[in-house]
Write a structure and sequence with these properties.
Elements lengths: L6 H22 L8 H14 L3 E2 L11 E5 L2 E3 L13 E10 L2 E11 L4 H19 L7 H13 L4 E2 L5 E3 L6 E5 L16 E4 L2 E3 L5 E3 L6 E3 L5 E3 L2 E6 L2 E4 L4 H4 L6 E3 L2
Antiparallel strand pairs: 1-4, 2-4, 3-12, 4-5, 5-16, 6-10, 7-8, 7-9, 9-14, 10-13, 11-12, 14-15
The structure holds magnesium ion (2 copies).
One magnesium ion binds next to loops.
């Protein structure tokens, strides 16, 4: 599997990743108390298919839905279902699409107002840790440099970094090399080269970093059942930085008084 993408491939991954941001924004317009996570999933699937794309997660190793919707103590891979969202929930939405054989992948966490201050801060700092990890990227750096930035920032607030799940390369497959942990040491790990496309996706916990998988074979939740936040961008490595292929700008423009949107 080629780690270095051509500019044509990069633009296809960008197109797909931008649709993911638009899809999450569309879902965000519909988050309100009492809505089920399955209803949000249907909105996402219809939106993606209306844009002549395919949901990337549906059927991936048997995953049954378009979105991963992970509420409160669920870290990632929550399966949409009958659960009704309620005030105070922290809702992480992860989405993937396929357009013309290339994958998009991005995630965002929302609060259903009123949100506890400690959850608002957890989301804000997880969001910012993603941007800090991206900010140090350049050809010649290593994945450990990204992880170091994310980890040192969030641990300064007493949060913990999930280790069992990591970011990844992205292209004509949803998960390619290299693995991109959200923890690490400067100068360690795979070298970043211009043209590589990676997803950086910090999963940050209020309590323990230990996680456990539910019997459904998917849902990952914190061992202590304290909340977790998740944000994800797909980026291409350039000689002097990173070009973010996904986008939160559509999400940031959503007007929905029921939700808290981290900016
Ligand atoms: Mg994702
Ligand atoms: Mg991902």
């Amino acid at each position: 599997m080629a780690l270095i993408k051509t500019e044509i491939e990069i633009e296809k991954i960008r197109t797909s990743s931008l649709l993911v941001g638009k899809t999450i924004a569309e879902v965000a317009r519909h988050i309100k108390p009492g809505v089920t996570t399955l209803a949000l999933d249907k909105i996402a699937e219809e939106f993606i298919r209306d844009h002549k794309a395919k949901p990337a997660f549906k059927g991936y190793h048997g995953f049954p839905a378009t979105l991963c919707i992970s509420v409160n103590e669920v870290v990632v891979h929550g399966i949409p279902g009958k659960r009704e969202l309620k005030e105070g929930d922290l809702i992480s939405i992860d989405c993937g699409t396929i357009i013309d054989g290339y994958f998009g992948d991005s995630a965002f966490s929302f609060g259903l107002v009123p949100v506890a201050v400690e959850l608002e801060l957890l989301m804000k700092r997880t969001h910012d840790s993603l941007l800090k990890g991206i900010a140090i990227i350049a050809a010649g750096k290593r994945v450990g440099d990204i992880g170091y930035e994310v980890q040192t920032y969030v641990e300064s607030f007493g949060y913990t970094v999930v280790r069992d799940l990591v970011g990844h390369g992205l292209g004509s497959s949803l998960h390619e090399k290299p693995e991109v942990p959200n923890y690490g040491r400067k100068g360690n790990g795979a070298k970043l080269e211009a043209g590589m496309v990676i997803c950086i996706e910090p999963m940050i916990n209020l309590g323990t970093r230990q996680v456990t998988q539910e019997n459904d074979g998917w849902t990952i939740r914190t061992m202590d059942r304290k909340p977790s936040a998740h944000f994800e961008h797909a980026v291409v490595i350039r000689n002097n930085g990173a070009d973010i292929l996904s986008s939160f700008s559509e999400i940031e423009q959503v007007i929905n008084p029921d939700i808290l949107i981290t900016r």
